[in-house]
Design goal:
This protein is an alpha/beta fold. The protein has one domain: Nucleotidyltransferase, domain 5 (2-Layer Sandwich), CATH 3.30.420. The chain has 4 helices and 7 strands. The strands form 2 sheets. It has a 5-stranded mixed β-sheet with strand order 3-2-1-6-7, sandwiched between helices. The protein has a two-stranded antiparallel sheet with strand order 4-5. A hairpin with a 1-residue loop joins strand 2 (about 25-30) and strand 3. Helix 1 (about 70-90) packs across helix 2. The longest helix is centred in the middle third of the chain and has 22 residues, at about 70-90. The radius of gyration is 19 Å and the shape is globular.
Length: about 150
C-alpha cells in the first residue's frame, strides 16, 4: 500500500507492531510503502495453567476455574512472545526504527519486555487498540501519533 502524500514518509526502514493482548500485526514501512508482513493471534492458555476447584451445590458438584491473574498472565506471555519476535527482527538489522501501537494500559508491559537493543530503536509507543481497523485508517492514526508524540 502506498502512503498518501499528505502523510509523513518513513526515512528509515520502520517496523510497526500493532497489537492488543490477543492479536498482533507487523507492518514494514519505508519511504511511502506500508506493507503487512505478518499477523499473529494469541494461542489461548490451557486450563491446566489455571487453578481448579470443585464445590458441592444443591444441584451437584460444580467444577470451577479460578485465577484472578489469568488475563494478566496471558497478556504478559503474549507480549513476551512478541518481544522475542521483535528481537529477531532487529537482530538481523533489517529494520532501524520501531513504532508500537498498543492499548494504553499495556504499553509499559510490552516496552518493559523488550530487549535493550530493540528499545533503542523504539521511536514511538502509541496508546490505542487498533488491530482490527483498516490499514488506511491505521496509517492516518500512526501519522497523527508521529506528528504529535505524547
Amino acid at each position: 500500500m502506498q502512503i498518501p502524500q499528505n502523510f509523513l514518509s518513513y526515512e528509515h526502514k520502520t517496523l510497526i507492531l500493532v497489537c492488543d493482548s490477543s492479536h498482533a500485526k507487523f507492518y514494514q514501512a519505508y519511504e511511502r510503502n506500508f506493507e503487512l508482513i505478518e499477523e499473529i493471534k494469541n494461542d489461548r492458555m490451557k486450563l491446566e495453567d489455571t487453578e481448579r476447584y470443585t464445590t458441592q451445590t444443591g444441584g451437584g458438584i460444580l467444577s470451577k476455574v479460578e485465577d484472578e491473574d489469568f488475563k494478566e498472565r496471558e497478556t504478559k506471555i503474549f507480549y513476551k512472545k512478541l518481544a522475542g519476535i521483535l528481537f529477531d527482527r532487529f537482530h538481523d538489522e533489517k529494520n532501524s526504527k520501531l513504532i508500537l501501537v498498543v492499548p494504553e494500559g499495556d504499553k509499559n508491559v510490552l516496552v518493559d519486555s523488550l530487549h535493550e537493543k530493540v528499545k533503542k530503536s523504539l521511536v514511538h509507543a502509541i496508546g490505542k487498540q487498533p488491530p482490527k481497523i483498516p490499514d488506511a485508517q491505521l496509517i492516518k492514526f500512526i501519522d497523527e501519533g508521529r506528528k504529535n508524540p505524547q
